[in-house]
Amino acid sequence: MGMVRDMRWRIKKTRVNDEDRCHRITAAHQLIFQKGVAVNGEHVKALLNDLSYVPTYNAFSDHLHQFDVNFFKLLVVDLLHEFKLGVWKAIFTRLLRILYAAGGQGIQELNKSYRAVPPFGRDTIRKFNRNASAMKRLAAHDFKDLLQTSQLSQDITTWLSSLQGDPAIENFLPRLKDHLIACILGHALGDDEAPEYSDEDRDNIVIVNNLMFEHNMLWVNYTTYDLRHEQDSINPCTRPDIMMISHETDEFRHPYWYACVVRIFHVNVRYFGPGSTSHEAKRMDVLFVRWFGRCINSPAGFVAHHLHHIGFVEEGDPDVFGFINPDVVLRGVHLIPSFTCSRTNEYLGASFVRPEADCNEDWKYFHVNMFVDRDMFMRFRGGGVGHVASREWDDFLQSDRPKFQPSENKVFNSIDGLGDTAGSNAGVADSHVDEDDGLIGSEVDSDSDGDSEENSDEVIEDIIADNGEELDDTIYIEEGYGAP
């Protein structure tokens, strides 16, 4: 994947939802469901296998084909099928041998680094084995990962007294009441128009019995880029990191804010101040979080070819800790520690917000893993159909991509079936440039009148497997997707 011949192959063999495909799928359906032909029968294979189709109707095709929409362009590639398990295992083994040969603590540091990577989602990234380098009892998903609600009530005053001197609880109760009043009055997170509340304002809100009810888990429901319903689990001990839509407008703006969840709890409150519509007790869910700040001095994103860098806000900043409504959480986010920057105790003094094993230290920086799954990738790429909450950021996100300009006095062939030949006035394929200009295309002279398919075949040859190598089609066959 990513090699010159791979890019040429993808351009040459671009899948299109055309009349031929629809006819093949319909004919295969008739053979199977009306004439009783086996799904893997010869007649079905003759229709589908040469293009690796499956006899399944597609909802996108059914509804969008009439508008000439090619649904293949709507779907993000599944990276698990792009990395062959055997190839990655061989590369990983080779890297381990290099570390062994180099001596020192290389292997130990590798294992330590993998153990420090947190899990994410239900089964997207699992907790790594204590000894990843041994590669014992590893399934396919483990190698992929190497590559990619009870409640407890507490009296608030008693709890704060037990943590006296901890910097995390400084002004805890006044800030909590400020958050509750803002939510009741409809002020959004980061709202510049939200007023500062006085002690008199805070006296208007009463936490029933002075109790907070702590929860172990938060389940975040979200809609994926392709309009599916999914769910992330947030656990302050194992999966604490979250992302939400930002309200930044300056030149260094970024679509998302990031935070680490310290506590999940709810309180029952009564509000007697201005704007109150009822004095009945109301349950309000709250997340107590430790904020991340973004490193704006380090270029990041698709153009910069670098993951976004974030780190904890330093003690002394008024925004080091805060409270948020769980409703504003977009998704959980997977953060990978920046192992080259080690750990530090400069951000925060001794505090209960860290696990004891961390010895009151934090990783100095984290990388935001925007490739952890396809939905996360689209949240940073922009344009996801199901990403309504971030729609206003689409133009900003989609501007973060390389801008290629074809060389002057050159004409390029259209992709097969999507345009005219190079000899026609209308036939210049969009975004195709030669190797010197970035992407790979089939260059022809501007005065050429040859057939574009014939010229393409002169440059793009069929790919055959090398010794010991399997092509993707072989893997698809084994998984039941048809034969080449």
- Pairing-aware structural class of the strands and helices? alpha+beta
Number of E strands: 17
| Domains, number | 3
For the sheet with most strands, the description reads: 11 strands, antiparallel
Low-confidence stretches: 406-463
Helix content: 25-40%
State the distance separating the first and last CA atoms.
Answer: 19 Å
Radius of gyration, in Å, reads 28 Å
Mean pLDDT: 78
Q: Strand share of the residues? A: 15-25%
**Tally of separate helices:** 14
Describe the global form. globular
What does this structure look like?
With 484 residues, the protein is an alpha+beta fold. The protein has 3 domains: 4-74, no CATH class; 84-149, no CATH class; 153-399, no CATH class. 26% of the residues lie in helices and 18% in strands. The protein contains 14 helices and 17 strands. The protein has helices at 4-12, 19-33, 42-48, 59-64, 85-102, 106-116, 140-147, 156-162, 172-184, 199-202, 374-381, 394-398, 452-459, 472-478; strands spanning 151-155, 205-207, 211-215, 218-223, 229-234, 241-245, 256-271, 282-294, 309-312, 321-324, 329-332, 335-337, 343-344, 362-363, 366-368, 411-412, 443-444. Strands 1, 2, 3, 6, 7, 8, 9, 10, 11, 12 and 15 form an 11-stranded antiparallel sheet that branches. A two-stranded antiparallel ribbon has the order 4-5. Strands 13-14 form a two-stranded antiparallel ribbon. β4 (218-223) and β5 (229-234) form a beta hairpin. α2 packs antiparallel against α3. It starts with a helix and ends in a 6-residue tail after the last helix. Residues 406-463 have low confidence and may be disordered.
